[in-house]
Every structure is written in structure tokens, then in C-alpha cells.
Design brief:
245 residues; 3 strands; 44% helix
Length: 245
């Protein structure tokens, strides 16, 4: 029994390893400089070509051409020669003339050392495992799994916020975190019922301060000591613009 459990675990591990190997290959292909193959192909047709002519023929700007040739030189694929007048030509090295070995298919890598007969036998064993699991899951398991994934994606999309009320206006007030459902938000950055019983209103309303009453623009919020604010940014019973009684 332990051997059978180990087989299932091994199958899962192998499936994961195949996925990782595929991702690594995709990343390597994406990181590879596509200009290298073009430079090699051109130099095989005409060796010792000036770098400026090469950039023109291939349609590569000078900076990108220089970076490609520098990387190819470090890899031993090309040799850049500088003439007395400062002009540069590029030639392939022996290594650059060799055909780059094609990367083996991942299936060949995974089954390296297997004979054709062994590979066929393994495929038959895996087919028997698939048939047994299909009997457990049902013949339509793939369709049901796709439907489950689609429903899960739909559930993750933004929707109406249940239990939080509706929002309105520009950054309006909010009911406190401690009291019941959140009611609608409204107004221009209007009041919020805060942690203490209070109302805010107006444009970015002022707050009842420690000394008295404010109101108007930066309109009041009932704060720690209560009171109403009025006027422009009033403080301590100030009405209007910084008016003091």
C-alpha cells in the first residue's frame, strides 16, 4: 500500500517538475537576444562586414548593435576588428561558424534512457491510472472542473458591497466602524460619523477644537470636546475669516 501511495505522490511531483522546466525554457527564450541569430546568419553570407553596414542591413540601431556584438564577443562567437581609420568589421570565429546544438525536446529529456518498448509500457500503465481516476470522478470531470474555475473567477470580481451601504458624491461621510451598517457616503469630502457622536459637513469641515467653535469652510466636526464651528477656518468662537470676538 505504501508503494502505491508513493507512486501517486511521484506522479504529482513529476508533473510539477515538467511545469517548472517548461517555465525555465520560456524564460530563457524571452531573455535571449534575438539579434544574435540574425548577426550569425548575415556573417555566414558575408564575413568581415563593417559594423555600420551590418546595423543598416539588419535595421538595428547602433546602441543595440554594439550591445549584441559585445555579448557575442564575450561568448567567443565573433571577433571585432578595428582598422587604423577607426572603422570596425565583424567576423565569425570558429565557434560562431559551428551550428548551435538544438535543445532536446523536454519529453526526450524526461525519458532519456527509456527504450521505445519501455516508453510504450509506461504509457499503458499511466492510461490505466487515468481510467481508474475517471471512474472515481466521472466521465465529465473536465467540464465540471472548468465550470468550477469559471464560477470561482466570477466570484472574485468586484461586486456590490453587501452590508456596507451605498456610496454617493465625492468622498462623502461614513458611519463609524463600531456602529451598525455603513450608511451612504455623500457630499464633497463630507462629514463622517466618527468614533464619538458627531456630524461633519461642508467643504472639508473644520473641527470643534479644544478651545471652542469652528465652522464654515473646513467645516466643523464634533470632536473631542464638542461644539460647532462656523465661518472661515474659525477658532475659539471665531466667525468669518479669522475673526476674533
Amino acid at each position: 500500500m505504501a508503494a502505491r501511495e508513493e507512486i501517486i505522490e511521484k506522479i504529482g511531483l513529476l508533473n510539477h517538475m515538467v511545469g517548472v522546466a517548461r517555465r525555465i525554457r520560456r524564460d530563457e527564450e524571452a531573455a535571449a537576444d534575438p539579434n544574435v541569430a540574425r548577426v550569425v546568419a548575415l556573417l555566414r553570407l558575408k564575413d568581415g562586414i563593417p559594423t555600420q553596414e551590418m546595423a543598416t542591413v539588419l535595421g538595428i540601431d547602433g546602441a543595440a548593435m554594439g550591445a549584441t556584438l559585445e555579448a557575442m564577443g564575450e561568448s567567443g562567437l565573433v571577433e571585432v576588428r578595428v582598422a587604423q581609420d577607426g572603422s570596425k568589421t565583424v567576423a565569425l570565429t570558429e565557434k560562431g561558424r559551428e551550428d548551435a546544438p538544438a535543445k532536446a525536446e523536454l519529453s526526450d529529456v524526461a525519458l532519456d534512457g527509456f527504450t521505445d518498448e519501455e516508453a510504450e509500457a509506461l504509457l499503458g500503465y499511466l492510461g490505466r491510472i487515468e481510467a481508474s481516476l475517471t471512474g472515481e470522478l466521472g466521465a465529465d470531470w473536465k467540464e465540471r472542473e472548468e465550470a468550477r474555475k469559471a464560477a470561482k473567477r466570477h466570484e472574485g470580481r468586484p461586486s456590490d458591497r453587501d452590508g456596507q451601504g451605498s456610496r454617493g458624491g465625492f468622498r462623502g461621510g461614513r458611519d463609524d466602524r463600531r456602529s451598525g451598517d455603513r450608511d451612504g457616503r455623500s457630499g464633497y469630502r463630507g462629514g463622517r460619523e466618527d468614533r464619538r457622536p458627531a456630524d461633519r459637513g461642508g467643504y472639508r469641515g473644520g473641527r470643534d477644537d479644544r478651545r471652542g467653535e469652528r465652522g464654515g469652510y473646513r467645516g466643523g466636526r464634533d470632536d473631542r470636546r464638542g461644539g460647532d464651528r462656523g465661518g472661515y477656518r474659525g477658532r475659539d468662537d471665531r466667525g468669518g475669516r479669522r475673526r476674533e470676538d
